Amino acid sequence: MASSLQDMEIMLYEAIATGNLSSVKRMVNSGIGHNAVLHSPKCCDAATILSTAAYFGNLQMVQYLVEAGASVNYQDPGVRRNALHWACMGNGADVVKYLISCDADVNALDRNNISPLMHAAMHSHEAAVRELVQAGACVNYIDRLRCSALHYAAFHRDRLSVRALILGGCIHNNAIFVKGTPLGTLASIGDVENVKLLLAAGCRVTPEDWKQQAEGLAEDSNVGLLMQRHVGLTPSLRHLCRTSIRASMKGQDVQNKIQLLPLPASVIQYLLLELED
């Protein structure tokens, strides 16, 4: 019995991986639970049927499973990931968008304290990052390595995701356990625009930061000159107000919350980082 069940799980995994929807329907209708966890020799982390389909980015299959009764928020007993985690680890922004529309928990944390947004940033899925930020995913979560989504996006040189995360309220510049900050990473790859945006959002450069982050960075480079100007700089009152207002929104749905404030259009633009100091 155990052997036949294992064979069935392997067959179901293969059907999902190859996009064979008719075979998936037949096996699901044969009695396999909608939230069953599949164990396959090809995947070291066991995932549910829905999560496996989400990982492979098969929207039609995901829709079928959800309509058949699979829970979008069921977290597998192993790594504690839901379907949205797996969709962000795959490459299907349409699946991410669909799961969000089905009330998937955008802030669910897996066993390693990693959220779907962090997985999307980790795997350079810029479209998924934008969908999640727009849906109100918290941009400030930090995993067991003290990495935020901003750390991962900066490390992978995903400039569009970095921008989306900063605009979404993430200004964490804490060092991870093995050393390194988002600002330092962005500076080292010469991403002037996002360094400028991160500083505008409220990231502070202390003399100690500069000493550490300037290693290997030419002082006459665009990034070097930009950061030098901010070392020990006393921020203006309006800059402090912008930083405080954005920080009060706790890194969730920041853009939408700002646009709803009863303030003049020019102030809204400033808070949205559309106007410089």
UniProtKB/TrEMBL annotation:
SOCS box domain: residues covered: 236-271
CDD domains linked: SOCS_ASB_like (cd03716)
Residue windows of the ANK repeats: 45-77, 79-111, 112-144
GO biological process terms held by the UniProt record: intracellular signal transduction
Pfam entry (one): SOCS_box
Swiss-Prot/TrEMBL keywords: ANK repeat, Repeat
Xref: InterPro entries: Ank_repeat_dom-contain_49, Ankyrin_rpt, Ankyrin_rpt-contain_sf, SOCS_box, SOCS_box-like_dom_sf
Name of protein: SOCS box domain-containing protein
UniProt source species: Littorina saxatilis
